[in-house]
Write the structure tokens for this entry.
Amino acid sequence: MKYAAVLIACSFFAHAQEMGVLRNLAENKLAPMAGMPPCITLAVESGDPTKGEAMIVFKAPAGCKIPWHWHTSVEHVISVSGAAKLEMKDGKSAVLTAGGYGLMPRKHIHQFTCVKACTTFISCGSAFDIHYVDADGKEIPVEAALAKK
């Protein structure tokens, strides 16, 4: 019983720390991130994407594409502005506009393309990673995935 109380207390304090984040989109210092296409700039809103749960915001111009890839964690995508096409390897696809939402299950192959300059939030439940794949679904190096075609 004490163990459960300690877990609940730790969970409360961890979330209380995050509850203090108040920031307008314009206040973010967006920057490129290694392993992502150079056309994307992003900022961490909360958490630490290298270690665990996090919320990330990114912006990209029209035509910017994150090629076929998957993540270890479930990925939640919320469109803030513009339009972005999300495609899943099983054939599902949609163009998300402001307020649009997508959920990519863990290890589910998908790609993301900004159709119109877009701003998007991504939430992941564990450390953020990205594994690029070729047309056959085989994992490929970042350099090969992001090479100009």
The CA atoms of residues 32 and 61 lie 13 Å apart. The beta strands are 41-47, 54-60, 65-70, 75-88, 93-97, 101-104, 110-124, 131-132. Residues 2-18 form the longest helix (17 residues).
